[in-house]
Specification:
Helix content is about 45%, strand content about 0%. It is mainly α. It has a single domain, classed as Glycosyltransferase, CATH 1.50.10. A hairpin with a 7-residue loop joins strand 1 and strand 2. The longest helix has 18 residues. One of its GO terms (molecular function) is catalytic activity.
Length: about 400
């Protein structure tokens, strides 16, 4: 469930990962300007719609009414057929065959706009597009026609549920999204022990992936990014013949993985030393809370309170949103998250919300209402490596290495 996915990004990761992770990234050009309605100051090419959707959804979750121009910016990113691309610099230009539509961005937009209300036409078209690109196995890949993966299938499930659909009844050739997830669930025992894989490898083998497992637990429970604490049903790891059992198995895997490393997950990008994965830890907290596994979720959210400030500050609006979702799921106050006000910090990355003043927000005149790509993939991935973002809300939905 995470930020931008691109073959170019992955290629860049492999090269940059071989260098020192702490190498300084190029400074942005002072002449660079992005839309004033957009959250965040980094290049939106791979994550504009995603991070905007998360920012708006997180603000709605804590009772903040976002700036109307930010909501309208997101609405205008939609293509005529209902899908969303990762980012369209000029939404007045019609989408065509070269426009790379994105199931993850579309699903995030559906969740945000549904929560905000008043955008039924937009969300209805988006859901229709998602249904039109469902794979024969019942799942979704990041791009239309791509092989189904756990992360993409799960975030689409969250969008369907948010829009009032019954995900188990959204079928292609008799297969539902749950059927796709069950095929990506590992058996009990061994290294996988009930986890979800991202995708099968070239030989059809499944490898446990903590990022995919956090997403898969939410998908199996028909949950989106914003959850209330669920009711735990004690269940040992058993063969997953139902989505509920797959969720229980995945939650057990996450609990063990979190406990192993002092209540957080670890990641290792190519060529880099293992480091804390703040994004996936936040995802895991939400997934565990959704199933009612509150003991480990609360331990991990306490770890995030103590350790995530620098990561969030460098990573921007999507990271603040993730932490707000984790706080909400565990009943933690997002306005006093380890002494930090996540709501204020998120607000400072975009236009002032409708119910707040200008304090703590960036000036609109620092941006223009049209933007273009500038920083490029090298800057973006370099910052990710420096910030220690890891896998969470980053390189999911494309051909990535199977990893814990």
């Amino acid at each position: 469930m995470n930020v931008r996915r691109s073959a170019a990004v992955l290629a860049a990761t492999a090269v940059i990962g071989a260098a020192t992770p702490a190498a300084a990234a190029p400074s942005p050009s002072p002449s660079q300007a992005f839309p004033s309605a957009l959250y965040g100051d980094s290049d939106p090419k791979y994550d504009g719609v995603w991070r905007q959707s998360l920012a708006l959804l997180a603000q709605d979750t804590v009772g903040v009414k976002p700036a109307e121009k930010s909501v309208q910016w997101l609405v205008r990113q939609q293509c005529a057929d209902g899908g969303f691309a990762s980012y369209r610099p000029d939404p007045t230009t019609a989408c065509d065959a070269k426009t790379m539509l994105d199931t993850n961005a579309t699903s995030a937009a559906v969740q945000a706009l549904t929560a905000l209300g008043g955008h039924d036409g937009t969300t209805r078209k988006a859901v229709g597009w998602l249904k039109s690109v469902q794979n024969e196995d019942g799942g979704w890949g990041y791009s239309p026609g791509g092989a189904s993966d756990t992360n993409s299938t799960s975030i689409v499930i969250g969008a369907l549920a948010a829009a009032g659909e019954k995900p188990d009844q959204v079928e292609k050739d008799g297969k539902s999204p749950h059927d796709a997830l069950l095929k990506l669930a590992l058996p009990c025992g061994g290294d996988g022990d009930g986890a979800f894989a991202f995708q099968p490898d070239k030989k059809g083998r499944l490898a446990a992936n903590a990022d995919a497992t956090a997403a898969g637990v939410l998908g199996a429970l028909d949950k989106g990014m914003v959850v209330e604490p669920g009711k735990k049903s004690d269940a040992a790891c058993e063969k997953a013949t139902t989505p509920q059992q797959a969720a229980a198995n995945g939650a057990g895997y996450l609990t063990a993985a979190l406990a192993k490393d002092d209540n957080h997950l670890m990641s290792a990008l190519a060529g880099a030393e293992p480091q804390p994965d703040f994004g996936n830890t936040a995802d895991a907290v939400v997934a565990l809370a959704a199933r009612g596994d509150t003991a480990q979720a609360e331990k991990s959210v306490r770890w995030l309170e103590k350790n995530s400030a620098s990561w969030a500050a460098q990573s921007g609006p999507a990271a603040y949103a993730q932490l707000i979702f984790a706080a909400h799921a565990t009943g933690t106050n997002p306005r006093d998250f380890g002494g930090a006000d996540l709501v204020k910090q998120l607000g400072a990355t975009g236009p002032a919300p409708q119910a707040a003043g200008k304090n703590g927000t960036k000036a609109a005149d620092e941006k223009e209402d049209s933007g273009s790509d500038f920083f490029g993939v090298w800057w973006y991935v370099g910052v990710c490596l420096v910030a220690g973002i890891g896998i969470g809300f980053l390189f999911t939905g494309r051909k990535k290495q199977q990893q814990l």
